[in-house]
Amino acid sequence: MPKHESSSALVPDENAAPASDPALRHHFDDLAQQHEAATLGMWLFLATEVMFFGGLFSAYMIYRVWYPGTWGDASRTLDITLGTVNTIVLITSSLTMALAVHAAATNERRKVMSFLVVTMVLGVAFLGIKSFEYYQKFAEHHVPGLDFRFEGQAPERANLFFSLYFAMTGLHALHMIIGLGILSVILYMAWRGRFTEAWHTPVEISGLYWHFVDIIWIFLFPLLYLVDRHR
Amino acid sequence: MDTDTLALPRTHYLNAEFGLASWLLTTDHKRIGLLFLGSISMFFVLGGIFAGMIRLELLTPPGDLVSDDTYNKLFTMHGIVMIFMFLIPSIPSVMGNFFVPIMIGARDLAFPRLNLLSWYIFMIGGCFTLYAIVTGGVDTGWTFYTPFSTMASTSNVMAAAVGIFIMGFSSILTGLNFIVTIHTMRAPGMTWFRMPLFLWAMYATSLINVLGTPVLAITIVSVALERAFHLGIFDPAYGGDPLLFQHLFWFYSHPAVYIMILPSMGIVSELIAAFSRKNIFGYTFVAFSSLAIAVFGFLVWGHHMFVAGMSVYGAMIFSVLSFLVAVPSAVKVFNWTATLYKGSVSYQTPMLYALGFIGLFTIGGLTGLFLASLGIDVHVTDTYFVVAHFHYIMVGGALMGYLGGLHYWWPKMTGRMYPDLWGRVAAVVTFLGFNLTFFPQFILGYLGMPRRYHAYPPEFQALNVLSTAGASVMGIGYLMPAIYLFWSLKYGPIAGPNPWGAKGLEWTTPSPPPTFNFDETPVVTEPAYAYDTVEKKLA
Q1: Is B450 helix (H, G, I), strand (E, B) or coil?
Q2: How near does any CA of chain B get to the CA of A81, in Å?
Q3: Taking CB atoms and an 8 Å cutoff, what residues of chain B touch A37?
Q4: How far apart are CA A151 and CA B493, in angstroms?
Q5: What pLDDT was estimated at residue A142?
Q6: Distance from CA of B169 to the nearest CA of A (A)
């Protein structure tokens, strides 16, 4: 084989039909390999995300064990109704995301687009409710650093609770915003008809990311809102 | 092969495209490896200058060269630059980027654009840290211990912290890329246990990068937020705990030591096999020892905190776990030695670095056992004994391996040979200079000279003078490769595809390799170090 030919000459099996797929990047042999790489990459990235949140989760759990009283008091000031509604909103968005992935696998372009839109609307709704909760905290002077006030014993420890509350939910919200950005790109790609039955990897791995962000909330909600509700 | 035909014009990754844009927008893993090589070399010079100033200050007992404040900034910036901007990225980003795809017979890494992004992220993070340096530096020590870093320090902690946070993502993305590439893109016949040991080391390193770095990232974010908004997570006034910072910090930063040393061990495995013409003794054990080091590395962070206020039982557990890391490390050293036994050893430049690595790493590792022992640790904590120990590992180990690998693969990367005599001289000078620099520090530390002080009692001067003298010898040892390697780019003899007669897919493709590494996807049919068969044929 001559050395100066283009990359396509390097694909080993030139008779294989998928090799000509426009979605195939030059350095992969076939779409299956490309799909495997992308999926594994996303799972690994999610593993790093678990470790990223893990630092805050450990900090939260340590102080929760050290200061059960104050943290119970602080936790009870959170709006459990809004928290529950938000949990339902987010789980529903995970469902519609899964449906979008399924529709992509069966190559139903319009369904992919509508489910993506519903997912994004639910995501925005979650962020809207979250901002309202933040506004409440602001009004109640429960934001650390900004004229923080807390009735009850050891207000400085409540300050620590709210620090972690804002750090964890803020980081989660940031991930939601990034997720919305990703989904808009996926929506655009779906609109342009980029996905086929053979190749819809981006929809799938964005779905993984969206579910991951959902799961983080599933841990945050009981830790932050439901702690000490029994008293 | 005939050298005349080799000298004929040929398209390879270096001359396939020209111009600045072809480099800054490249997705070729080999070019990105060279981008990293350029950047980290500059950072190495910078960190070296700081080191030189530290050693000059310590030449005389009084603090006469720089003020105490400047001295704090000097050792902090030396640590930050050398650890985060040189040692951690060095081998994975340069040799890993360049050789992981070639050694498994792939055309590129799994995510080429992500790979380019990781260089940009690294440079952006580097700029923040450089900004911290030019705006007066940081005085917290590279460990950013709270509460000093969050409340007391008036230096530019924020910029340095943001820089390190950003550079962390570069490590994460590179590690992620390597793991996916090794899992999904191996050439036909390249089974896991036919992979060169360098790849096993890269794989283990990437696992640490992927699982450890995010913890450092969130810790550094917390420090920055605490400085800005008084979050209180590490502040006792709010019920926070400064020790929590140390736990989170060392959860990454102890494994980070293995990010620095494991890749070097991988390179040394390649060098020992190639220059003693033998299969690595106990290949499987060496491969698994890399993974074992990665796993144990996550369980020993507490040994940095023996005197920081840990319960005696906690300290005992961390002490035992720390001893455990010595087991896989010793497995490697013994297996390298067993490989050398009755091998046809040739002492070319890379091999000298590899042998230097084994000697220095052994000293560094054994003194690590001293430090893991609770009683001795209490005596030598925060003395020059610790400084000497980790420099034996990081400079004597990680850097010797890096230089060995650079010399070994230089002909493949550039297509040119360097003068081997100068290489051997440089390796020996570095080895001698290194020992002269850091061995006296073991004694200094044992006698009680504390680290991070810019002045010291006169009775320590003799050993400090030795140390500073050694540092200048070592500096010459690092300067020499810089000169002759540059020289070789233009005047070095044409290398040919396999100047060492080594095994491995990287030696089957032309030097420098073509853009997509191989003209045809290679098929692997034998173990990584099947030198025995070659030697038998020759005999």
Answers
A1: strand
A2: 27
A3: 110-111, 180-181, 183-185
A4: 79
A5: 86
A6: 10
